[in-house]
Amino acid sequence: MRLYIVDDDRNVQTILKMIIRDRNLGTLCGIAANGADALEDMPYAKPDIVIADLLMPEMDGITFVKKARALWPDTVFIMLSQVASKDMIAGAYESGIEFYIQKPINSVEVEKVVKKVEQSLIDRRTLRKVQNIFINQSDASANTGIPPVTGGYSGHASISSIRSSDGNASKTHILRLRSILQKLGISGERGSRDIIQLVDYLTEHQTRLSDATLGELCSKFSDNPKSMEQRIRRTASMGMVNLANLGLEDYSNDTFTTYANTLYNFEQVRREMDFIRGKSTRHGNVKIKSFLNALVLACTES
């Protein structure tokens, strides 16, 4: 991974350089003392991850991240600051950062955050590649929109193993999935069982949701696919509500920082947070296909 530092404090620059070098976090591809210089340098540096200070001369970190993300949407941003204001931190997340690190800098925290961001970036790129593969296959086959699968799946008669909780219990990806659902506070929801069935199917057949509708996939598991789809949507939405509440209590909560920008879209989680606080009349929206695809990646990553 290529890392870039944007901070006007030379001591901070030096500390970050040492952490990146000593902990083998990647290649340092550039340093800038302000956002304007960084914007000029980034086309040549081509960083995967940018670590930027919140308070800088000429251009603050939030403005810098907004401008940089518009130009390089695939780059991931981590923000540093001594500011502890929740509104400032919320503004930083809204600008598009992935994580927020409180100064003074702790080398263990920097390593943990950079590695977490690196894995998130790898997952995102992998998901995009897989989606493109299946979209191309779907266009080529001009089929029903459901990506071709392997393993000889043939409908209702072959899903007894998926429906069997005993059969699922020993599967590593199912154990991970149940842990994720528990962290989201939705493991007891009726739709969680449906989510497990779909994610298990997608995992076992090494496929992703692409052009197929959720209803089409649900029809393979239920005689009433519409009800199954509604249960899944309600459960996924409940997970967002629970995450939003976690974020309101503590922006640095591990579950919040891990899943608010991977399983869900952070802007939508933020909207849900505003709804809870009475600042908005609209709930956050869940893109259910992205949610299920992200769950597949999250519970199968090594």
From TrEMBL:
It holds the Pfam family YcbB. It comes from the Bacteria. The lineage of its organism: Bacteria, Bacillati, Bacillota, Clostridia, Lachnospirales. This is Response regulator. Residues 2-118 form the Response regulatory domain. The keyword Amino-acid biosynthesis does not apply. InterPro entries: Sig_transdc_resp-reg_receiver, ST_Response_Regulator, YcbB. Keywords: Phosphoprotein. The modification 4-aspartylphosphate is found at residue 53. The keyword Ribonucleoprotein does not apply. SMART domains: REC (SM00448).
